[in-house]
Amino acid sequence: xxxxxxxxxxxxxxxxxxxxxxxxxxxxxxxxxxxxxxxxxxxxxxxxxxxxxxxxxxxxxxxxxxxxxxxxxxxxxxxxxxxxxxxxxxxxxxxxxxxxxxxxxxxxxxxxxxxxxxxxxxxxxxxxxxxxxxxxxxxxxxxxxxxxxxxxxxxxxxxxxxxxxxxxxxxxxxxxxxxxxxxxxxxxxxxxxxxxxxxxxxxxxxxxxxxxxxxxxxxxxxxxxxxxxxxxxxxxxxxxxxxxxxxxxxxxxxxxxxxxxxxxxxxxxxxxxxxxxxxxxxxxxxxxxxxxxxxxxxxxxxxxxxxxxxxxxxxxxxxxxxxxxxxxxxxxxxxxxxxxxxxxxxxxxxxxxxxxxxxxxxxxxxxxxxxxxxxxxxxxxxxxxxxxxxxxxxxxxxxxxxxxxxxxxxxxxxxxxxxxxxxxxxxxxxxxxxxxxxxxxxxxxxxxxxxxxxxxxxxxxxxxxxxx
Length: 468
Ligand SMILES: [Cu+2]
Description:
Elements: H1 29-36, H2 40-45, E1 72-74, E2 83-85, E3 88-103, E4 106-113, E5 122-125, E6 129-136, E7 145-147, E8 171-177, E9 182-187, H3 192-197, E10 202-207, E11 218-227, E12 246-249, E13 260-263, E14 267-274, E15 280-284, E16 289-294, E17 297-298, E18 305-307, E19 309-312, E20 317-323, E21 327-333, H4 358-365, H5 378-383, E22 398-401, E23 404-408, E24 412-418
Parallel strand pairs: 1-11, 3-6, 5-10, 11-14, 13-24
Antiparallel strand pairs: 2-3, 3-4, 6-8, 7-9, 9-10, 11-12, 14-20, 15-19, 15-21, 16-17, 16-18, 16-20, 21-24, 22-23
The structure holds copper (II) ion.
Residues 247, 278, 280, 333, 335, 338, 411 line the site of copper (II) ion.
């Protein structure tokens, strides 16, 4: 490998950085050097990157003060520290099993990188040369494919095609220049169905070399994924193709997904990548966002388009941007099963079915059984609070807001915008306090209230009535 110093010079310990980026939220060559230069990776491993950030060395690397893109914040995730060696940005990924929590009450043995699924986000600048060590601590071979990156064929990471597999215990090195910018991803290209199904993936953000003409104040990213973690089990089932139990933003489900916090008037970008088995229409309330980019980079402004829902297809990334307006705004997949947690896909439809008597009979063989669904599923969210379900299984829908049950799960979180959010602060500001007179409210409890126009259903006499 040209320019490689071989193995042993980079810590083989997983490097964990609890911070999401530099303190000021900006991402500069100098700042990163200070944070993760000489000794910086060890400092980061000790969780003290911020405290050590001014002690590092900048020797041997030209500074480019005009470059100051906003550091990306990985939702519920983190950014992989790097160090400079001979003008090359060095990263070290460790493929390994991880004990992952989807939300309190639901965890599993998954596979990921450096202790997490997804793996840490790799962040760099167009024109950088990167050297990425990959250590395989899995029980089977793997590779990493740099999804969407323009690179030499031998660096593409397709096991058996572009390189030999990394056997357990081995470390390989990838090295290539970054010839593009945009929201990219990484994942294995070896035993791919299984390794993706158990969580092996990450984001690879490349900032453009030239400053962006319309800069953003906050830059979030997350990956979409699906999991077949059957009720009562602790290992995702890789053989499932459609009936998944968990739908995740960055491997978390509501209510464990971080809110996206911003100050009113700030320009916010959200970068979304999809390495799941479904396409996801991602819908944001409160604004018309602009779709501004993909793994092809930030598109020319003439190609931006206003949407409130954008499908992020499998293997695709999409960047959306908007100017933040005050409120608590839902951000979710619009496939309504994808905003639910585990549910039985094979159970009969009980909507409208009188289940009196059935419940008692079933309880004799299934203690705790609850008949439900006669009038809808909303009651399920209420019962789930006091009824014990199968082990390691989240309620299908959950969450409580200032006005009651939220009845969501899976791919759902909130964009929380306030006038008084401090620059660089991502702390959850709590629930939005609506200005007086701006909340929908009850005007009657009488079902015969008012005189709304209603139509009689037009039905032909053929076939008779719909039975009760
Ligand atoms: Cu979806």
